[in-house]
Automatic annotation (TrEMBL):
<keyword id="KW-0378">Hydrolase</keyword>
<dbReference type="Pfam" id="PF00657">
    <property type="entry name" value="Lipase_GDSL"/>
</dbReference>
<comment type="similarity">
    <text>Belongs to the 'GDSL' lipolytic enzyme family.</text>
</comment>
<keyword id="KW-0964">Secreted</keyword>
<dbReference type="GO" id="GO:0016042">
    <property type="term" value="P:lipid catabolic process"/>
</dbReference>
<keyword id="KW-0442">Lipid degradation</keyword>
<dbReference type="InterPro" id="IPR051238">
    <property type="entry name" value="GDSL_esterase/lipase"/>
</dbReference>
<protein>
    <submittedName>
        <fullName>GDSL esterase/lipase</fullName>
    </submittedName>
</protein>
<dbReference type="InterPro" id="IPR035669">
    <property type="entry name" value="SGNH_plant_lipase-like"/>
</dbReference>
<keyword id="KW-0443">Lipid metabolism</keyword>
<dbReference type="GO" id="GO:0016788">
    <property type="term" value="F:hydrolase activity, acting on ester bonds"/>
</dbReference>
<keyword id="KW-0732">Signal</keyword>
<dbReference type="GO" id="GO:0005576">
    <property type="term" value="C:extracellular region"/>
</dbReference>
<dbReference type="InterPro" id="IPR001087">
    <property type="entry name" value="GDSL"/>
</dbReference>
<dbReference type="InterPro" id="IPR036514">
    <property type="entry name" value="SGNH_hydro_sf"/>
</dbReference>
Amino acid sequence: MLVFLRKERTELIMHMVIKVMRLLMAVVMVVMLQCSKGVFGSQFGAMWVFGDSLVDDGNNNYLNSIAKSNYYPYGCDLSSGPTGRFSNGKTFVDFLGEKLGLASPPPFADRATSGSRILGGVNYASAAAGILDDTGRHYGDRYSLSQQVVNFEMTVSQLRTMMSADNLSQYLSRSLALMVFGSNDYLNNYLMPSIYPSSYNYNPSDFANLLLNRYARQIVALYSIGLRKFVLAGVGPLGCIPNQLATGQAPAGRCVDYVNQMLGSFNEGLRSLVNILNNGTHPGAIFVYGNTYAIFGDILNNPAAYGFNVVDRGCCGIGKNQGQITCLPFAIPCSNRNQYVFWDAFHPTHAANAILAQRAYAGSPNDCYPINVQQMSLLNS
């Protein structure tokens, strides 16, 4: 009888200990969630980044890809040096995170991105990635849009072990999903007829519809997992980047007009998609279109107003417009980097990224439609 009572008492104590531990874990999660709301309670709890090299912060470092930037002079204006960011300094995500009071999300491919490190969000972006799985394959491995969604599901599986279903639902609904896709589907697919057949199979309008249909499917998948606040960035004026100017298809002082014109179908379609997604069929969600084309176009048309005086070539690169071969290891970049719009053949400088982030955060409806990121963050209040 004594043995039985001792056993019963031990089980009671263990049961009480387990209950106390669960309660403590719940309290910790509530505190962490409250802290993640930002100092003023109006910011996002986490930022989930999906996209390509414009917002990749190191995923391709861990992939078997030739699309890498983990070498000098990339990162030459960062205290940490090269990180895998395709810029001389910070990316659009870094600047936007600073405005939201969030640290830049760690790259998914880094094995250290687990546990408490994922609570502020994760970056899934991958250089050479596109909406289409085939896009960028000549660079080697990359996380396409569909794979990035799968990777996000893996992260959410981890989160389910860290918080209750209700807390997870609230946490995801208060998060920001930033999506930057489309550039590679043109630069590293449609505009490469010697490698990809897409330009033979689709006219520009039909190709844009193909991209938008695939894109919409994955956006809805992310909504079904629990994300509720989305910024969908349009494609910038690719016909003006050093890589395209180096083709010699544009008159002096002009961009490659036919490239810019074909982007209209995609950007206009993405804005229309935002209207469709916001029509009440996705309760609790808000979708925002980031007008990258107009913002970047304004910078290129009025460079002096933003402190730039070089708009037609890269700060680091080789050949015509420093855009025929992109920035190579240990190349010597320009010294006046803050006066350049483009860092290399494809990507903006640190200075240009700062402007893009500011306009996304606090810009007019022409920059961010129907509301900007700052206004979106107030929905969490």
